[in-house]
């Protein structure tokens, strides 16, 4: 286990600032999820920690020791990348034990440690198989086993589950979390699946254009996103901006939102209520229902308010009685307004 820390990391490629002054601590034994749109710098940050990318400036520390002079193989970092390549001609046990062989671990100990880690990823019976005789999820477990068998101080995972289909992916998320807990290893995980990041992480960090926009415990960041980017990136948020008045927030169409705390507020899609009749709620807006999307347990209503797209998420029965499209009322509780810092 180890604390990983970056200080003012900058990496540019021509005019692109892939990392723009990243200062961040990844807690000892924690599961840290890095999130951000495509091209925001997630992979570059992982590669800089691993030592594959040399930053223009700034430093990486592992347990308070700077690592710029420590080569990749000596950083004691385990890695699982998106396209983890297993050696096709080696058995599962051979693949997992390879790193130990390179480190000249004696055969008997090697065998014991490979068996131990295969048990941990629940592949104890499959050590003699070749990679092509495994399912995608099993291959992913082998890649995990291979990354942790050398007992690294840090585990870096770059979209390790993205090749798996949805149901296997969810199963593997639970597995991954269990394995990480059992081994207790400091883990930094890159994903662009926000649900995955929220499920797995003790802490999340959100990157945008190479900058760290926010970090903290998932619930804290979700409940109090602070800025419009984070509010819309994490979950589905509807933004409303207007002019603050003593009585509330005056929107462009003249509607007054009583109790709005700031000039820009967000309302989560799950907190919007839709009714055909005018509600008694103090906060209410006239909007147009454009589309109702059925998606199993939860459904989505796509709405339009004065040219702004809005979204409401709910169970199908919440939307029962609504037409496929047409004029509706929107309302929400004042407690569900999230104050945001800028418009
Ligand atoms: N070797 C490179 N040469 C030139 N530009 C690069 C290189 N590696 C990354 N970049 C650029 O740096 C930026 C950050 O890339 P990075 O791969 O870190 O993003 P990401 O958040 O991991 O994206 P994705 O989610 O698509 O994998 C992008 O604009 C990318 O084009």
TrEMBL record:
Keyword DNA repair found: no
GO molecular function annotation: ATP binding; ATP hydrolysis activity
Keyword GTP-binding annotated: no
Chain segments annotated as transmembrane: none
Keywords attached to this entry: ATP-binding, Nucleotide-binding, Transport
PROSITE patterns per the UniProt record, alphabetical: ABC_TRANSPORTER_1, ABC_TRANSPORTER_2
Biological process per Gene Ontology, one example term: putrescine transport
Domain ABC transporter intervals: 4-234
Gene Ontology annotations for the cellular component aspect, listed alphabetically: plasma membrane; protein-containing complex
SMART domains: AAA
PANTHER family in the cross-refs: SPERMIDINE/PUTRESCINE IMPORT ATP-BINDING PROTEIN POTA, SPERMIDINE_PUTRESCINE IMPORT ATP-BINDING PROTEIN POTA
Protein known as: ABC transporter ATP-binding protein
Protein source organism: Aliigemmobacter aestuarii
